[in-house]
Amino acid sequence: MLSTCENISSQVDDGYNPRPQKHDCSRHCGTIVVPFPFGLEEGCAARELFQLSCVDKARSVLQYNDFINVLYINVSQGLIGIKYNSSFVEILFNMFSQMRFSSQGVASNIFGKGPNLYVDPTESASVQWAVANLTCQQAQQNTSTYACVSTNSSCSRVISTMQGYVGYRCTCLPGYDGNPYIPDGCKDIDECLQTPRICKELCHNTEGNYSCTMCPDHTEYDVIRMQCTPRRNQSLLLGIIIGLTIGFGVLILGLIGIAIIRRWKKDVHKKIRRKYFQKNQGLLLEQLISSDGNASEKTKIFSIEELKKATNNFDSTRILGRGGHGTIYKGILSNQHVVAIKKARVIKEGEINDFINEVAILSQINHRNIVKLFGCCLETEVPLLVYDFIPNGSLFELLHPDSSSTFPLSWGDRLRIAAEAAGALCYLHSAASISIFHRDVKSSNILLDANYTAKVSDFGASRTVPADQSHVVTNVQGTFGYLDPEYYQTGQLNEKSDVYSFGVVLLELLLRMQPIFTTMSGMKQNLCTYFLSEIKTKPIIDLVDPLVLEEAIEEDIRQVASLAEMCIKLKGEERPTMRQVEITLQLLRTERMTPSHVSQESNQEIEPLMTQGAIDQVIHALENVDRANVASQRSQTSCYSLEKEFLSSASLPR
């Protein structure tokens, strides 16, 4: 590592000027301080790369260039806080589409010409910077351009995990703080004032350090006055009397107040639980369950005491995993039923709304491929959800295990899991009593039960949609790599957003690659971009998982790849519906299980989205069956108006 860091260009970087050419330079842009070597005017910065623009002093808008705003500058730690403009996002999308850029390329494109003295801005919002592209040894040889001009300063290296050695910067020595780039900029730190309890007794500040001493004999340290005071000679008898008096008083007060305190605590806890119960829409849920026999059979309201007992007071050893909307605990109810209990990791208003939203949605839907909501607890600040326990984890863990030992997932199982998940999403979009957009479809939200049957889970981000609307406008929410680009740009969530995310899951099943993976060169790569680029120049059999090649025929692979390619089209109107996706996958499974009984006409129908007419014919053929199923499912809900009221009250704008 040392040799790599020191192996920089032999070209001498003499572009740094340790003294500003102009006097009386402005050092503030509103509330933002702009210390040297940065500057706001020509001749006030140490080099051209450090010159900034104060475009709006009243609102403290400080710009590095058209792409980047500067939020703060920390010379002691060598950090600059940045915020990207919308133009930067467009540049990143262009670079991803070209598939040719490196971390150094990003930094040089964004921060301008000249030596690349900024660490890759994609690594962190707090960007490190160097003053020159030299080693400390090289910089110290030329005193006229050496940046560390303060007496109590030293030279430090700036290293990036992706770029390697960047250059050097200056820091104040331990015990000093300030600006090492100006004469006498590093000032002594008074540790005694800065950290009052740094010594047990007396603290003495020294230049660059401090020392601790004990109080003289017959004195003791007064923590309030922070000095040594004469030790008091208290009478032993007086101390005994005071001790007995205090002890007797505490005992009497304890005996008198113990009953009152217990009663008061019990009443307070009861009021708090009732308050949370009402806040979490508990009254509406109770009304829904009592008026709907089907709901009462599948949804139970638990007390917090029951769930504490089931999880051993939420013991950390019972944690099954941590998701985007909470922590999952394994619980055993009093009837020995094993359940999974979701509890919020951080108490925030948005997450409370997500939990309420998930209770409202899951209490109304019933599908064999959707995780079953066993009940909930509304007596805490954040509702707790109780599901049936799913023993085999998620599809993501099965496809991308941490260890080398893994369960081999056959081609038939992959098609089955994909078809089951597609059926669940199709049900949410078109067959449930009210349309639901999942908004966070990904392989880690597809769980596998004891028989490896797919169970779609995590509805914390889902949105319900009225029948007369095709989309809803929301704050963008989802997982990077699965997120629909059209939804990201417009904020309009529709059923095709779930189709795009499901297309990424299909690519995971086909290629067995993560949605954001690291290439051989160490760069982060988007799976959709990689697939769309490689499929133009390579046959699909060169891209898929070797386990798939062992079992699947080339025609099946091409059809699934074509279906995935349709799902991840940039324009939502060009993507199929989840109904079309489900039918295509089911026909593929039928074709695979009964190859000898499939006619040439069926083969033409199963070609994945080859023509829209082929799928429309299949949909028309199944419409009569679907209508009967939908009517049966909707007839199970006898109080639809009350369900709609509950969903409306729980689905707060997000």
UniProtKB/TrEMBL annotation:
Tell me which GO cellular component terms the UniProt record holds.
plasma membrane
Q: What is its main location?
A: membrane
Q: Where along this sequence does the record place binding of ATP? A: 348
Q: What is this protein called?
A: Protein kinase domain-containing protein
In what way does this protein cross or attach to the membrane? Single-pass type I membrane protein
SMART domains linked? EGF, EGF_CA, S_TKc
Which Gene3D superfamilies does the record match to this protein? Laminin, Phosphorylase Kinase, domain 1, Transferase(Phosphotransferase) domain 1
Membrane spanning residue stretches: 236-261
Family matches, as InterPro entries? EGF, EGF-like_Ca-bd_dom, EGF_Ca-bd_CS, Growth_fac_rcpt_cys_sf, Kinase-like_dom_sf, Prot_kinase_dom, Protein_kinase_ATP_BS, Ser/Thr_kinase_AS
Keyword Acetylation set for record: no
Q: Where is the Protein kinase domain?
A: 314-588
Q: Where in the cell is it found?
A: Membrane
Superkingdom assignment: Eukaryota
Q: Which GO terms describe its biological process?
A: cell surface receptor signaling pathway
Kindly state which keywords UniProt assigns to this record, in alphabetical order. Answer: ATP-binding, Disulfide bond, EGF-like domain, Glycoprotein, Kinase, Membrane, Nucleotide-binding, Serine/threonine-protein kinase, Signal, Transferase, Transmembrane, Transmembrane helix
Cross-referenced CDD domains: EGF_CA (cd00054)
Molecular function (GO) terms listed?
ATP binding; calcium ion binding; polysaccharide binding; protein serine/threonine kinase activity
